[in-house]
């Protein structure tokens, strides 16, 4: 109808979909009922997608979250999202509506353009970044990226040194593991290996964010807002690492003796190492 969206049949199978044309950072939504009618939605779900085929539901505090809708046709109910959504497509799915009317909605979406650098990996490739020695910071190291994949296993990040020391981040059975290995167990017998696993079902073809922060011997490992803090008891400072970071795989197969692991097959977005945009650098060079 002219007064907004009102499907011919009011039932739980109706939805209104928006194509924003490109991935956008969505920060808020607002709804009204149908203009000059008794049609309004009292609660709804919000779904989002990059492709328009594979949908994810907006959640708050990890619970399935229904938005409270309208109580009349004309008042605007505005929600600032607790965490922004980055997506091209949005779907509003009515759950309940005015019992004396039908489903009726007018909606508005608020947000801004989202700058995104994406690189695809085919399971045989990797991206190697040689770190500028001037950018090496003994006190602080920060790596951040997003990834999406349908494969349950694959190397996301690898860095190793001369004596077998290495840091590896890999997807194993849909979970993300950070492995810190001190090659020389004679010199550092305690804590020779640290292995932390976070997340599950990360092979769902949705974007997942990863952050590794290393300050002195304090390490923070974050996957999708879940953080594991740990102290490397001084060993971290002993790690003898090359000036080379490898994303998506290990450049020389068998370089790390025990690693017979597969390369990553999927996409990375916005890879940063200490503020350097790695994908942009790779494109320009």
UniProtKB/TrEMBL annotation:
Segments forming domain Laminin G: 118-285
InterPro entries found in the cross-reference section: ConA-like_dom_sf (IPR013320), FA58C (IPR000421), Galactose-bd-like_sf (IPR008979), Laminin_G (IPR001791), Neurexin-related_CASP (IPR050372)
Domain F5/8 type C: start-end pairs: 1-112
UniProt keyword Transmembrane helix present: yes
Keywords: EGF-like domain, Membrane, Signal, Transmembrane, Transmembrane helix
Organism superkingdom: Eukaryota
Compartments it resides in: Membrane
GO cellular component: membrane
Keyword Protease in annotation: no
Membrane topology: Single-pass type I membrane protein
Protein family membership: Belongs to the neurexin family.
Protein name, per record: CNTP4 protein
Lineage of the species this protein comes from: Eukaryota, Metazoa, Chordata, Craniata, Vertebrata
């Amino acid at each position: 109808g002219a007064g907004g969206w009102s499907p011919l049949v009011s039932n739980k199978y109706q939805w209104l979909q928006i194509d924003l044309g490109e991935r956008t950072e969505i920060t808020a939504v607002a709804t009204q009922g149908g203009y000059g009618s008794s049609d309004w939605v009292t609660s709804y779900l919000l779904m989002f997608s990059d492709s328009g085929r594979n949908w994810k539901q907006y959640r708050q505090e990890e619970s399935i979250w229904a938005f409270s809708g309208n109580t009349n046709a004309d008042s605007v109910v505005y929600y600032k999202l607790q965490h922004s959504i980055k997506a091209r497509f949005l779907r509003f799915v009515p759950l309940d509506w005015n019992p004396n009317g039908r489903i009726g909605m007018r909606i508005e979406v608020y947000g801004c353009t989202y700058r995104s650098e994406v690189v695809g990996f085919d399971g045989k490739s990797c991206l190697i970044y040689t770190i500028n020695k001037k950018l090496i910071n003994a006190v602080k190291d920060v790596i951040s990226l997003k990834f999406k994949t349908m494969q349950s296993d694959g190397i996301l990040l690898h860095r190793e040194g001369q004596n077998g020391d290495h840091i590896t981040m890999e997807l194993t059975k849909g979970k993300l593991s950070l492995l810190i290995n001190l090659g020389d167990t004679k010199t550092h017998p305690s804590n020779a290996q640290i292995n932390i696993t976070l997340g599950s079902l990360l092979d769902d073809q949705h974007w997942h964010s990863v952050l590794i922060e290393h300050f002195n011997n304090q390490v923070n490992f974050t996957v999708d807002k879940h953080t594991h803090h740990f102290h490397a008891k001084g060993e971290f400072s002993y790690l003898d690492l090359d000036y080379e970071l490898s994303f998506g795989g290990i450049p020389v197969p068998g370089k790390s003796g025990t690693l017979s692991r597969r390369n990553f097959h999927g996409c990375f977005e916005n890879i940063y190492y200490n503020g350097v945009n790695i994908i942009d650098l790779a494109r320009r060079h």
